[in-house]
Amino acid sequence: MKTRIRTEAAVLWQIAWPVLIGQLATVGMGVSDVAMTGHLSAEELAAVSLGASLWSIILVTVMGIMMAVNAVVAHEVGANNLNKMPHTIRQSLWMGFGVGLIACLLLNAATLIFDHLHIDAVVNQKASQFVHVISLGLPAFGMYRALYGYTTSLNETKPVMMIALGGLGFNIVINWIFIYGHLGMPQLGATGCAVATGLGLWLMLVAMLLWIRRADVYRATYPFTHAEGPVWSEIRSMLKLGLPIGVTYFAEVSAFGAVGLLVARFGVIPVSANQIALNFSSLVFMVPLSIGIALTTRVGQTLGEGDAQRARFVSWVGVGIGLAFAIISATFIMVFRDLIAAAYTSDPDVQKMTAHLLLFAAIFQLSDAAQVTTSCAIRGYKVTRTPMLIHLMAFYGFALPIGSVLGLAPDWMPWHPDTPMAAQGFWIGLVLGLTVAGGLLLAYLQRISSLRVRMAANSGKIAG
């Protein structure tokens, strides 16, 4: 058994580590945005923080919707239906473009929320401009995630890593030029971050297209042999699988994003500290997420081969790896939270509050790792609605309501703290919500994986 676990863990890690580096590089764009504006002024940091609260919600929702491609292609790879894959990828690109375009329009409309948050007019204007510029990268991101699902489902994750690293390097250089106004360019501050990230997403799409065109591994399934218009029945089938994943991602990220927006009423320092703590938490989260993406691929391939018993084994090995990492990350955050805060900002008040919020980030590491790895394993079974409902209940039934009571202390509630706990209250709610999601998803994975094993056994008996 130990040998089987080590072997499967090695296979999962082989898929996951380039994805991890790619995910870290992608999130690193946001880290560089926050860190570089944080050393310009608290006002610019607040603008990026507010704009990023909306941007991250929409971006991750698009990423969730497009994860349908991972599950669909992984099953086709497992079943050796390589002849179907070019058509699937072409249709997924149409879906990615459409989803990205709609997301762009929604993100721009969402800036109206800033007018109701009682924030400084200058910060409002800068945050809105940040969103308007960065949103132009969303159609490219949707198509990039379609190709991302294609290549990772073939177990080819090196391009994801290399392209994301290139995108991060580009982002840092363009940030340096436009945030601070170097090389004769104007000092754009928060808007300079948006220019860098938006351009970077289009360049990443072009780089992925060129990689697929040149690499031999894609020859048997090369999707660009001819042009093909959108086929709504195919796109609708993928959307049926992907939309619940998108809603699941939306539930979690919007809960965190809503906290950033609700904290804005308490001033620049709380909103900046909240964004830094969230930004670093998102960076750490990339490890269990990458393991989860590998799990979706491995479980989908194994089920495509018709081996339900092995799919269950793969699922729990992946969950175990995620939980082991969570113990390490929780300890790291607890010990080094002051240094982490200082790396992001030179403002002592923001540093102090950030270090305090990072304590809560350390606490929810286990439940966060549990919920992401289990939900990704479940997606490998092509089941997406139940995880969606669990996440909606966890974040909108527990995290935000409890966080709002503690953070805002509304007078109309029968019980509330004597004074608002501000960001701290909201983070307590997030800890509770993640704990509920992690526990329920662990139980559901056990149920569905065991059910598939019994179904396979009964099918074998009937066939015999």
Outline the structure in words.
This protein has one domain (about 1-455). By secondary structure, it is mainly alpha-helical. The chain contains 15 helices and no strands. It has helices at about 1-40, 40-65, 70-80, 85-110, 120-135, 140-155, 160-180, 190-215, 230-265, 270-305, 310-345, 350-365, 365-380, 385-410, 420-464. It is globular, with a radius of gyration of 22 Å. The mean pLDDT is about 85. The chain starts with a helix and ends with a helix. The longest helix has about 40 residues, at about 420-464. This is Multidrug-efflux transporter. Keywords: Antiport, Cell membrane, Ion transport, Membrane, Transmembrane, Transmembrane helix, Transport. One of its GO terms (cellular component) is plasma membrane. It is a multi-pass membrane protein. It is found in: Cell inner membrane.
What does the secondary structure layout of this molecule look like, with pairings?
Layout (H helix, E strand, L loop, with lengths): L1 H37 L3 H25 L1 H11 L6 H26 L10 H14 L3 H16 L4 H23 L9 H25 L17 H32 L4 H37 L3 H37 L3 H16 L1 H16 L4 H24 L13 H42 L1
Please provide a brief summary of the model.
This protein has helices spanning 2-38, 42-66, 68-78, 85-110, 121-134, 138-153, 158-180, 190-214, 232-263, 268-304, 308-344, 348-363, 365-380, 385-408, 422-463.
Count, helices: 15
Rg (CA only): 22 Å
Number of domains: 1
Based on secondary structure, the structural category is mainly alpha
Number of strands: 0
Helical residue percent band:
over 70%
Query: Major sheet: size, sense and barrel closure?
Result: none
Distance between the termini: 29 Å
| Mean pLDDT rating | 87
Q: What are the segments in which pLDDT stays under 50 over at least 5 consecutive residues?
A: none
